[in-house]
Amino acid sequence: MANAFFSDLLATISERGRTLLRRAGPSDDGQDASELIELCEALLSGRGEASGTAMARDVLDRYHDLDTAGRLSFFETLARDFGPEREKLSQAIESWRNQPNDSDASDLHFASEPRRQELIRRLNRAPGGTSDLVAMRADLLSLMKGNKDLAALDRDMVHLLSSWFNRGFLVLRRIDWSTPANILEQIIRYEAVHEIRDWNDLRRRIDPVDRRCYAFFHPQLNDEPLIFVEVALTEAIPTAIAPLLAAERQPVPVERARTAVFYSISNTQKGLGGISFGSFLIKQVVEELRRELPKLDTFITLSPVPGFMQWLKKAGDVPVSDDERTLLEALDRPDWFENAELTAQLRAVVEPLAAYYFLKARTPKGRLVDSVARFHIGNGARLEKINWLGDLSPKGLRESAGVMVNYLYRLEDIEKNHEAYANQGEIAASSAVKKLLRTEGRRLLDMRLS
Known about the structure:
Elements: H1 2-24, H2 33-45, H3 49-65, H4 68-81, H5 86-98, H6 102-111, H7 115-124, H8 129-143, H9 151-164, E1 171-174, H10 181-190, H11 199-206, E2 211-217, E3 227-234, H12 242-245, E4 259-267, H13 278-292, E5 298-301, H14 308-314, H15 322-328, H16 340-359, H17 371-378, E6 382-387, H18 394-400, E7 404-408, H19 414-424, H20 431-449
Parallel strand pairs: 4-5
Antiparallel strand pairs: 1-2, 2-3, 3-4, 6-7
Helix pairs in contact: 1-3, 2-3, 2-4, 5-6, 7-9, 16-20
């Protein structure tokens, strides 16, 4: 109640200040990026709290009215002309060189900060400013492609957004059928792994006794989930997604559930890309579930493999013979999995290739190829099992040849697995997955000998 009162009061003061500014300032007609830059300079020059807040709101409103070319011009100017004050920075550098000490180091730190960081801070003071800045970064990301000059501006935005959206500010809330409709609509809209077709489909995922959904919220985006995870409570580890999502399935009584399955994790804010909440979300949900259901002893994912088919088709390091490459072409047929003989032949080739894809294949920068694998392995999970024909949806067949995987979160091993991956690049994997890789090795040897 107090927060709402304060927000309303601030918005009222801001609106009155903005009205005064508009009476005294130029007309909005013909607004372009250059006029917006002038307003940003005025905002940085220092005003009273009310007028500064109103001016920040005005900047964000005028930015919203710019077209794509205007926004690009605005971003380019911020990147080019709103860096550190060079004279002040030169003086700080000279002082540090003459007599290095903690005070001079602090001066050097503050002098090296780009002016655009302070501009972004002041914009954040406007009512609704945080949400607008997240949307602004989404625009920046879309305009950065092929434009390296904007990278410095993006680094500054990420630096500030990472501080404002750190774990200490996030609130975990359970999503159920009593959650307000505007939030439920966002769950439907932003589900990125397994499409939610309608309200009935959503209810099947969040309402039964063996289903859970949790989301992180931020106080400044109170009705907008940042990221959410869907959980199924099961008796055993699942190997396919269809039974979990089936409309006619029988719910599992919670007293019999021993496994919590994280089968979908979706981000909702494009502007927060690169700012990770997922690891915190999973760990806190595990804690919540253990408190509610102490008998749960297995925490595991049922995850897609979105980059697998692209790697099979385009990567230069796929270890296959010409005959196997011809066989793999059958994966382009929409009904290939209905042919039992063909399916058996493909399985003998695809499963070992999947193990190779996770444990050996790398991007040119040395990273795991698969984005989902990077997320879970980086968070300390173990690659537990490769599931053949785990997802027969059109999307699953198109992206991963139907392959799904389980990543196991064993709480006692998470830190050890994370450190091994972060420091040595080691992938924690079960003996079953490593056995598939050995099968791949024997197959490669046979190829060389033949």
